[in-house]
Specification:
Elements lengths: L5 H30 L5 E5 L15 E5 L3 H13 L5 E3 L13 E7 L8 H11 E12 L7 H16 L9 H6 L5 E8 L7 E8 L1
Parallel strand pairs: 1-2, 1-4, 2-3, 4-5
Antiparallel strand pairs: 5-7, 6-7
């Protein structure tokens, strides 16, 4: 994943902290349905400033893999706000510092757009999941090929990636998930009223 140092990463953490509430308003019911029945030992990759903490059941064992120290600061504060216990570990999604078959679920929201290697990340997610474990995801993705929005995503990608800690607005993330070798994959495409990153997917994959 991108190195999270310097002014840009600090600014991005602050912007995410300020903007996550507005984003959650747009996806509130979808997030609730996605995370409602999660249980056991749960790993969230890239929890950022804690935008998902309000949706988790209180009786899970939650681990947050967050490489950015600036994000971790806000994450700890948000965990206190929602009285959600969370173990925060530092590392990358391409090399998750957990044992094989060690978690019941992995959660990713707005993360696969910014990892250095989505295929390696998905391979690591499969590795740490127990057999029958679920990968739950909500991600912004590329607009359909040939559309004006897809062209706009490609045009802004170099600057967008620099300003948003490595985020790629035009990744076909659904294809990477479908090709990652899970036993079962369920994906829903939907659209939010957001510039550039309106196209989204959500769903689950079972190991």
């Amino acid at each position: 994943m991108t190195k999270h140092t310097g002014f840009t990463s600090r600014l991005n953490a602050w912007l995410l902290h300020k903007g996550s509430e507005r984003y959650n308003e747009k996806v509130n019911e979808r997030k609730r349905s996605l995370l409602l029945d999660v249980s056991g030992r749960v790993l969230e990759i890239g929890p950022g400033t804690g935008a998902n903490l309000e949706y988790y059941p209180k009786d899970i064992s939650l681990i947050g893999l967050e490489p950015s120290p600036f994000m971790q600061h806000y994450l700890k504060e948000k965990a206190k706000q929602f009285k959600q216990e969370i173990e925060i570990i530092t590392g990358t999604a391409e090399n998750i510092p957990l044992s094989d078959d060690s978690v019941d679920a992995v959660v990713s929201t707005l993360v696969l757009c910014s990892v250095d290697n989505p295929d390696d990340t998905l391979s690591e997610i499969k590795r740490v999941l127990k057999p029958g474990g679920q990968f739950l995801f909500m991600e912004h993705v590329a607009a359909p090929e040939g559309t004006s929005l897809r062209k706009a995503q490609r045009w802004v990608e170099p600057l967008w990636k620099h300003m948003a800690d490595g985020c790629h607005p035009d990744r076909e993330t659904w294809e990477a998930i479908e090709n990652a070798g899970f036993d079962y994959v369920e994906i829903e495409h939907f659209r939010l009223s957001l510039p550039v990153v309106g196209p989204h997917i959500m769903g689950r994959a079972v190991k």
